[in-house]
UniProtKB/TrEMBL annotation:
InterPro entries membership: Riboflavin_kinase, Riboflavin_kinase_bac/euk, Riboflavin_kinase_dom_sf
Reaction(s) this enzyme catalyzes, per UniProt: riboflavin + ATP = FMN + ADP + H(+)
GO molecular function per UniProt: ATP binding; metal ion binding; riboflavin kinase activity
PANTHER family according to UniProt: RIBOFLAVIN KINASE, RIBOFLAVIN KINASE/FMN ADENYLYLTRANSFERASE
Designated name of the protein: Riboflavin kinase
EC number(s) per entry: 2.7.1.26
Residues spanning the membrane: none
Superkingdom per UniProt: Eukaryota
Keywords: ATP-binding, Flavoprotein, FMN, Kinase, Metal-binding, Nucleotide-binding, Transferase, Zinc
Pathway(s) where this gene product acts: Cofactor biosynthesis; FMN biosynthesis; FMN from riboflavin (ATP route): step 1/1
Entry function: Catalyzes the phosphorylation of riboflavin (vitamin B2) to form flavin-mononucleotide (FMN), hence rate-limiting enzyme in the synthesis of FAD. Essential for TNF-induced reactive oxygen species (ROS) production. Through its interaction with both TNFRSF1A and CYBA, physically and functionally couples TNFRSF1A to NADPH oxidase. TNF-activation of RFK may enhance the incorporation of FAD in NADPH oxidase, a critical step for the assembly and activation of NADPH oxidase.
Organism field: Potamilus streckersoni
Length: 153
C-alpha cells in the first residue's frame, strides 16, 4: 500500500474547516481539492510524516492527515498538513510543497476532542523522531524544495 512513497505534492494553501488552530491548537495548511484528487490510489487514508516548505521559508518537519476525519464526519477527502513549527501569520494562498515519506497510523474516530488531540500530539512526536533517521532526513535537502515558484522570485 505504501510503495508509492515518497510522494511529492504541491499547491496553494486554501482555507480548511478552521478547526486546526481554533479547536485543536494544532494549525494545518490545506491543499486544494485538485491536489487531493491527484493522490495515487495506493496512498490510503491515514496519518503520514515528511517534510514541508511554504514559499521560500525553511523546510520543516510535518505530519499530514489524509481522509475524511471520522471525528468530524467530513463530506470531502482532505490533505491537512501540520508543519512542526510556530508561524506568526497564516499563509493562505502561499505555495506549499510536501514530501510524504512514511505512514504513522490509520484514520480512526475518537470518543472526545481530548483523545483526538492526544493522538495528534503522539503523531507529531513520532514524526519528529522518525525524521531524524538518515533515510528520511536526507529528503529535507531534496531539489524539489529548492525549485522556486513564480511568487518566490
Amino acid at each position: 500500500m505504501y510503495n508509492k512513497l515518497p510522494h511529492f505534492a504541491e499547491g496553494k494553501v486554501v482555507k480548511g474547516f478552521g478547526r486546526g488552530s481554533k479547536e485543536l491548537g494544532i494549525p494545518t495548511a490545506n491543499f486544494p481539492q485538485d491536489v487531493v484528487d491527484k493522490l495515487p490510489e495506493e496512498i490510503g487514508e491515514g496519518v503520514y510524516f515528511g517534510w514541508a516548505r511554504v514559499n521560500s521559508k525553511p523546510v520543516y518537519k510535518m505530519v499530514m492527515s489524509i481522509g475524511w476525519n471520522p471525528y468530524y464526519k467530513n463530506k470531502k477527502k482532505s490533505m491537512e498538513t501540520h508543519i512542526i513549527n510556530e508561524f506568526e501569520e497564516d499563509f493562505y494562498g502561499s505555495e506549499l510543497k510536501v514530501v510524504m515519506l512514511g505512514y504513522i497510523r490509520p484514520m480512526r474516530d475518537f470518543k472526545s476532542l481530548d483523545e483526538l488531540i492526544k493522538a495528534i500530539q503522539a503523531d507529531i512526536k513520532e514524526a519528529e523522531e522518525k525524521l531524524e533517521l538518515p533515510e528520511y532526513k536526507e529528503f529535507r535537502d531534496n531539489n524539489f524544495f529548492r525549485e522556486t515558484s513564480p511568487q518566490d522570485s
